[in-house]
């Protein structure tokens, strides 16, 4: 029988498979899947070979084995990399900052093979996490004094990265490719370092320790790779959490689940807000969407995070209420504040703005304002209305004081962040915004209530009650949303249709018709419908409420839920 390390007929060593051959061709053209599998096989074979041969091997044997390792390492002298993927990802990030959220928790600067690209990405991360935009201009300010970037073109290199982008759809694929190639480089480092270490250690004492070290590094690398993907949880972990939720819901008669809406009928028909839901509140202009959203935000802030009970004491609400961020793009923060003040005082917003108040009313407004100040509500009135900017502000709010509920007023006034460098349809932009809001809800584990306009086609129908198809500019809103609720006020449309006398109509007929219209207006006055058109966790339906647009207060009416 031949010695384990004697040459074999196929040119390798006896009793072992042929030496590992790297994939032919340029490293940039390496097939990633084939390369990954081959390197993993090489790593496993390396451990097996060390365990099998080295414990009793001679110095000669160790040298031969090191030679095999060296040849493997030299075959990959140019580390696996894909500069095109790195450049495409950086360009996509500058064109559309929103793609950052697709890989921000996985892709790190050290994953880039080109150090300059890695430093550009690090600077982009710093800007994004600070709530600032990333573009060739903002990055240029950081790299103005950077000689390394200057050697490859300086600011022109940044502009070229952004200008060469055709689409941002593949940005996540670029990130995965960069991460995968980094893992392969790490695995090759293990092979090289093990080769060097084997030439230095004493065979009898240190080889088992070396094997353990190598195994540990390979397992660490594998675990890091898993951590870069989507979180994977075993069924018992998920099951334990769900059982706790079910038990808590039973003990609290359902109040432990999510955030209440303020009225029992709404909790029943619409369902409480729960993480990580994206809820769409849609309606035509003048329906009162913002008024209703403010009411939901106020009730959330005044309901206890632990017990879900309503907190009458404002000091207790400040400490224990749900923490709300209200992003307002249509109205200013001052206007939203006056709306909440109207709710607290029962005074009309116009009367307060125009100073048409009695001394007692002014005193009541001031006192109510001080109480309102204590509620855990933050108003985001920033003019920067991209999804990524909102994401950063919401994350900052959650990090600093906690965040339980986000309201966005409204989707069609947001920007996808892509229009600076590429042309895209508004439908594509709204789809990207909708997807971004859903990702925000999942990433921060909070419910997000987003207001949405509806298409004008509603006005052409005899029955003006909205349908899912009426969601403006994007069917993606319907797809991404966990719940879609429409606000409808028949009173508004009745007032738009005041009867006019027809040429062939006598006085009595016109009078009867006008009286019927007045009667219908009286019956519809102050009433609204919240129509649940989609609900992933329950059935659809309709709830009738009383809605006072002057104060924003909602109450139940006598209409039965359907």
Automatic annotation (TrEMBL):
One annotated Gene Ontology cellular component of this protein: cytosol
Molecular function terms, GO-annotated: 5'-3' DNA helicase activity; ATP binding; DNA binding; hydrolase activity
Enzyme class: isomerase
The entry's keywords: ATP-binding, DNA replication, DNA-binding, Helicase, Hydrolase, Isomerase, Nucleotide-binding, Primosome
Top-level taxon of origin: Bacteria
Residue ranges occupied by any SF4 helicase domain in the UniProt entry: 252-561
Record carries keyword ATP-binding: yes
Catalytic reaction(s) noted: ATP + H2O = ADP + phosphate + H(+)
Region (Disordered): 1-31
Enzyme Commission no: 5.6.2.3
Protein name: DNA 5'-3' helicase
Species assigned in the record: Oceanibaculum indicum
């Amino acid at each position: 029988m031949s010695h384990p390390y004697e040459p074999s007929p196929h040119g390798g060593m006896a009793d072992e498979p042929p030496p590992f051959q790297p994939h032919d061709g340029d490293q940039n053209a390496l097939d990633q899947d084939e390369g990954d599998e081959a390197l993993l096989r090489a790593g496993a074979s390396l451990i097996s070979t060390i365990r099998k041969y080295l414990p009793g091997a001679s110095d000669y044997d160790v040298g031969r084995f090191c030679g095999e390792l060296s040849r493997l390492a030299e075959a990959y002298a140019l580390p696996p990399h894909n500069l095109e993927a790195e450049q495409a990802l950086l360009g996509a990030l500058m064109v559309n900052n929103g793609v950052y959220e697709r890989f921000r928790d996985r892709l790190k600067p050290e994953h880039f093979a080109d150090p300059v690209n890695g430093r550009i990405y690090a600077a982009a991360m710093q800007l994004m996490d600070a709530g600032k935009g990333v573009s060739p201009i903002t990055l240029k300010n950081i790299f103005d004094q950077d000689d390394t970037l200057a050697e490859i073109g300086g600011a022109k290199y940044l502009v070229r990265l952004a200008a060469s982008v055709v689409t941002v759809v593949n940005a996540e694929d670029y990130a995965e490719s960069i991460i995968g190639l980094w893992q392969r480089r790490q695995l090759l480092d293990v092979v090289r370092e093990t080769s060097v270490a084997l030439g230095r250690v004493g065979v009898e004492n240190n080889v088992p320790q070396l094997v353990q070290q190598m195994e540990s590094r390979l397992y660490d690398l594998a675990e890091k790779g898993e951590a870069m993907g989507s979180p994977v949880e075993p069924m018992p972990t998920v099951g334990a959490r769900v059982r706790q939720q079910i038990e808590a819901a039973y003990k609290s008669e359902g109040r432990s689940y999510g955030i209440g809406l303020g009225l029992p009928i709404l909790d029943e028909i619409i369902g409480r807000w729960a993480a990580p839901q994206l809820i769409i509140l849609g309606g035509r202009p003048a329906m009162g969407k913002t008024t209703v959203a403010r009411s939901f935000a106020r009730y959330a802030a005044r309901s206890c995070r632990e017990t879900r009970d309503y907190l009458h004491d404002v000091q207790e609400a400040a400490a224990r209420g749900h923490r709300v961020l209200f992003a307002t793009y249509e109205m200013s923060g001052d206007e939203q504040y006056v709306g909440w003040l109207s709710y607290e005082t029962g005074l009309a917003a116009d009367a307060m703005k125009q100073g048409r108040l009695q001394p007692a009313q002014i005193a009541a407004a001031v006192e109510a304002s001080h109480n309102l100040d204590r509620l855990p509500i933050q108003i985001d009135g920033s003019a920067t209305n991209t999804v990524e900017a909102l994401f950063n502000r919401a994350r900052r709010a959650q990090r600093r004081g906690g965040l339980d509920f986000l309201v966005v007023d409204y989707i069609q006034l947001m920007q996808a962040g892509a229009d600076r460098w590429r042309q895209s349809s508004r439908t594509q932009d709204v789809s990207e915004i909708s997807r971004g809001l859903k990702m925000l809800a999942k990433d921060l584990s909070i419910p997000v209530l987003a207001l949405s306009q509806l298409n004008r086609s509603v006005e052409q129908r005899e029955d003006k009650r909205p349908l899912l198809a009426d969601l403006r500019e994007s069917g993606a809103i319907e797809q991404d949303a966990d719940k879609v609720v429409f606000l409808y006020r028949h009173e508004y449309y009745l007032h738009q249709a005041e009867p006019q006398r027809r040429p062939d109509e006598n006085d009595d007929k016109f009078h009867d018709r006008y009286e019927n219209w007045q009667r219908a207006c009286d019956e519809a006055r102050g009433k609204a419908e919240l129509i649940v058109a989609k609900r992933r966790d329950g059935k659809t339906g309709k709830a009738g409420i009383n809605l006072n647009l002057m104060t924003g207060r909602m109450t139940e009416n006598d209409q039965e839920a359907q």
